Q: What sequence folds into this?
């Protein structure tokens, strides 16, 4: 006679819904009955396999039947357990199990479905603002490119940046927002921050205005760096005694820079958002890269020592010639404009 209690407990065990008390009873039953134990072991293997779906259930049935037939040489006392009993137990347990697998598979399918990617690209002297499907707002600086999905799916909201952009991220604690650059990833839940990572620069910067971000270096993914509001993270290659070295890269965390300490809106790192180019004690080498994107030109240094000259100033609507002449008043140098290339020389 078939033990209905064992059948019910076996179904609950295989589907993962057995209570602690019933589990003790079930384990006692298979410990004292070799037939029960064999049936349980036969079915357990298939319920634990990953990736099984309704489409290959017939194959599973066939494999189980082959296992049962292979044990046909055992004593006749096994004959009281026909195939229909195994099938019935399997189907009964499969109810909850299949439901779980369906939703899990559906979830994975949603996450792994082909993503439709979009790109936004700005040329020199151009900025662009876009709103993502989650409501996050991105302002792209000149000479930048961002790749983002038409619609966010899966656990994370992920975008890829080359250049500079300011992010005002919509809050969604269940789906972190991640900005990927060539050297770091910046993970946030909802905040406002600036990320700068141009291909032609040997540094990457993240400046946090509000909220909290977590930075991970691609070369050292185990290390997580947390930024607080008004802090700036800078990753660069040259050795700097005031910075911390990490796998060949150098990073530092400093306060973000105010052009005027009395004006809390005059933030150097985000001044481009207000159509201003602010610089404070910045090397000519670094400033030339910003000027190149600001005016859509290229700078060529004919004197290496010029690269180390430092400047402080503010540009808004000045022409290229006006900007260069203003710099000459701070530190003398000569220049020659040929098309879109500006050659810089030391004063003879």
A:
């Amino acid at each position: 006679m078939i033990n209905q209690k064992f059948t019910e407990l076996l179904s609950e065990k295989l589907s993962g819904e057995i209570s602690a008390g019933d589990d003790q009873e079930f384990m006692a039953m298979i410990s004292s009955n070799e037939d029960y134990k064999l049936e349980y072991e036969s079915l357990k293997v298939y319920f634990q396999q990953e990736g099984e779906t309704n489409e290959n259930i017939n194959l599973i049935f066939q494999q189980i039947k082959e296992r049962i037939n292979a044990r046909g040489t055992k004593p006749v006392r096994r004959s009281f357990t026909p195939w229909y009993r195994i099938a019935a137990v399997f189907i009964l347990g499969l109810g909850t199990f299949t439901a779980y697998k369906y939703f899990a598979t559906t979830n994975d399918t949603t996450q792994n479905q082909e993503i439709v990617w979009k790109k936004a690209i700005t040329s020199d002297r151009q900025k662009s603002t876009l709103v993502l499907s989650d409501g996050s707002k991105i302002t792209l600086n000149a000479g930048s490119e961002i790749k983002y999905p038409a619609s966010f799916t899966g656990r994370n909201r992920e975008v890829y940046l080359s250049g500079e952009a300011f992010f005002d991220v919509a809050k969604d604690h269940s789906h972190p927002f991640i900005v990927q650059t060539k050297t770091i990833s910046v993970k946030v839940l909802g905040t406002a921050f600036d990320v700068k990572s141009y291909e032609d620069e040997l540094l990457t910067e993240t400046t946090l205005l509000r909220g909290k971000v977590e930075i991970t270096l691609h070369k050292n993914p185990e290390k997580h760096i947390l930024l607080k509001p008004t802090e700036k993270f800078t990753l660069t290659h040259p050795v700097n005694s005031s910075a911390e070295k990490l796998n060949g890269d150098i990073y530092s965390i400093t306060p973000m820079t105010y052009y005027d300490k009395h004006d809390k809106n005059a933030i150097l790192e985000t001044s481009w958002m207000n159509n201003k180019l602010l610089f404070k004690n910045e090397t000519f080498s670094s400033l030339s890269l910003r000027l190149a994107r600001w005016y859509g030109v290229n700078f060529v240094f004919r004197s290496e020592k010029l690269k180390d000259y430092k400047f402080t100033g503010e540009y808004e609507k000045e022409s290229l010639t006006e900007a260069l002449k203003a710099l000459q008043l701070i530190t003398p140098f000569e220049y020659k404009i040929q098309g879109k290339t500006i050659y810089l020389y030391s004063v003879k």
